[in-house]
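Box 3.1 A note on notation
Throughout this textbook, protein chains are presented in two layers. The first layer is the amino acid sequence; the second is a token string describing backbone geometry. Keep the layers aligned when reading.
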Amino acid sequence: MFFQTKKYTLFTLFITLSFYAQKSSISSYKIDYNILFNGEALLDEGIASLKQNHIENHWGILPVIEGFDFSITNSSPTELFKIPEEKAIKAIQKSNKKDVAVRDRAYLLLGKSRFYDQRYVSALQAFNNIENSLLVREYWKALVYMTIGQNELAFKAIEKGLNDKSARKGEKKFLNLAQIQYYINNKNYDKAVKFLTELLASNNDKKLKARLNYVLAQIYLENKNYETAKLALKNVINSGINKSNSLILWSKLIYNNLINSPDYNLFKKLIRSERYRQNISLINYFNAKFILNSQPKQAKDLFSNALESEKIDFTLKSKIYDELYKIYLLEKDYLLASKYLDSSLAYVDQSTIKYFRLNKSRNKLKEVSKLEKENQLLDSLIYVNSLSEDERIKLLSKSVSISDGYNNEMSVGSSSSFYFDNKKSVDLGIKKFKEKWGDILLTDDWKMNPQISLERNVSYEKKPVLESADEPSFDKLSIDSLKLVFNNNMLRLGMSLNDYVFDYEKSHEVLSTVDNNLLEINDQEILLFYMTKASEKFDKKLYDLYKKKLLQNFPESIYSKSFTKESVSLNIDSLVAKIRSEFNTQKFKNLIKQLDSVLEKTYNIEERYALSIVKSELIAKENGVDEYLIFLENLKKDFKDKQQEIQEKISVLNSIYKKKKSQGNKIKYVGLVVLEENCPISENQDFECMFFNEKRNLLIFYGSDEESTKKTLENHLNTNAELKNNKYFVISTPQLVKVLAFKTLDNLNY
């Protein structure tokens, strides 16, 4: 009886445990196929939505993992992944801790939802909770690490996954892709090619093979291995994937521009194709590049047509602007070249070397184009006012404006800020000219001094400027002032054409119109020097004649010495950077000697100015600010084009000394508030607003000691809503001098 009862009890226990086990299994089943299934389906929908709105960047090397860059280039709508995340959390909460498969699947869903929502730390936490699926866990961890720039941690995750001996053949494919991506990210292209080639040989997925071949071609192009790149591109074209795939279009376009016998009708075929209707700008761009050397005019039209399309990505737009800039530069249309370069730079990362290089070119072009436009205007105003009344009325009736020739054409860039571009500004300009030049009386001799002048067979184009019948009137004094400014501007323009855009013939043409009588002595030698430099490139006889006159008239000039002594050839930017890097050595005298030895053999005006500014900083550090200010005043005489820039440095420093002197040198500390916009209007007269650069202003409070200066500054910030969130710091007045003199604000700790 006892045994029967015991048997019955054990049987009952078995049935009970079986029931609960079955119930647990059913529960897991429901979690698996209801909650998780729905969550995964919603995640797939979210990813599909990202894919639909995502345009892959073919201008750089594509990620080998399709969709890897969703989380980098797209701002993911949170709503897409909110519900999948909730489903994953619910599944985890309801799951049996012993049911590892279900929990791993839930944590994978959770991590992927957060990954695509760009919450990388939270995603990593979820992936770390995956227990059994080692390959899956390490793969997704690697993607997270690569996305946030932790490449070494990514490599460790990839290695850990690849070293899993329990994995079956073919299961490591995605880790292989992550491995390739790691090497591409680190620009280790040799290893990337090695593993790409291996994966291509072992993989039969035609869509993946097409992508891998395309990435392979991009790497070969990066290394200028064009023949091998062509083979890889041909493999993409013949891969058998859907022809609407962007890989096919890009491969055809690139391949056609690489081969020796290109298909001239390809671009027409592609444009006529309905499947590439959204890619017309891209096709026109490649077509333009294809015919650029042989048909530059048609190429220019194609570039312009490409810009008109609404479906154009910012990189393509930047490249087209860059091409048009180069075209107009070759055509010597510096106004339009400057405008297109402006537009191109708007799409370039400011932290890159490319931006630095192009911005430097922009500044040079801006100087040339500004002077060209200004001189056209000045010349026209002088010309109009030299006419008789009847001639002027006749001309006025035509209503010709100089701005029409440019402004209608210049919509690609920012509008001109030059003050002569409208009637009201012209009137104001005349008033200012009278204020500035009213006491200067000049002769009407508008020809070159015969002692220096040589035969000229070219002239600067004269264009009338009129916008209405009530044009501004000029008296003799105003016209002479305009002539003086025009003459000096023509000298500067000729110099700029020579130094900045290397247009020697146009430089000589412009310089030939300069009236030597209206120049100061040092400008007369500069004129001769630049006419000599310009003619050297295209007329040996003229060059010898100008050179002879320069040596005769100005034998001790640095410009004459440039022809009698060996001139140095160096990288000014590198030299300046090297000298500034040695400031901390405190060997200022030695550094000044180094600079002087270079300056003795440097005759390019721009290079001399760059070196002179560095020298001024060394003088400030060696001899103090007073000597620095004296040196800057002398620089103003040597570099007239830079007078405004130099005076800016002088003015801010003088303002500090003036303030200190008025307060009996009690000022020892300064509280600074950095403003990214204009200074707010404040009733507190203790604060002063000071210009720092084009992007920043400084709100300044002067104090006698550090602690009281800090307290006063903080109180002002707390009571002024406009300033509350701005960063501030307290420094000594000598530090302030350095900040303003050397623009070292970014090196200070807030």
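The first strand starts at residue 669 and ends at 675. DSSP finds 33 helices and four strands in the chain.
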